[in-house]
TrEMBL record:
Alphabetical list of InterPro entries matching this protein: Knr4/Smi1-like_sf (IPR037883)
Organism of this sequence: Chitinophaga dinghuensis
Entries under Gene3D superfamilies matching the protein: SMI1/KNR4-like
Protein name, entry field: SUKH superfamily protein
Amino acid sequence: MDFTKFNIIANYNTQRTDLFPSTTAAVEQLEEVFNIKVDQDYKEYVTRYGCGILGGTYVRVYLPETIEALYPEWKERITQYWFWDEGKAVLTKEQVLESVIMGDTFDGDEIILYNHQYYILPRHEEMIYHTGHTLGGTIDWLCTAGILTEAFAERDFEPFDPAEYLK
């Protein structure tokens, strides 16, 4: 995906366009901690743009440190509140619990990575959606498929300080 076409807009609260990118070292640590290999799109997105919301207020891709911080709580919540049985032909509960949360949407849909593939766990559906093997393809699917939200073309990126998110 060509991430250079994203339009950086001012943060709603600070009116600033400062970016909060991650580092290659943090991505490598994420891969080591979770024994995964992330795709080039994820690496480019988090090291170029970092923490923020894409598409107006829709897609949020987590930084490596955010994934590490949120993972235990996420895994516990998925274990306790599993309700995606209609999607078991796509991924089983056990496979989802072996996956890594990579981001979410404003609506609460979760982006996960399992076996080098991206999937969406929708908040308001019991289905699981396979969105491909790249973050760029997943972003395109979320913004254009018209399944979880009305399709939209805007690719505005609003940065925000990850320290504010993890409070």
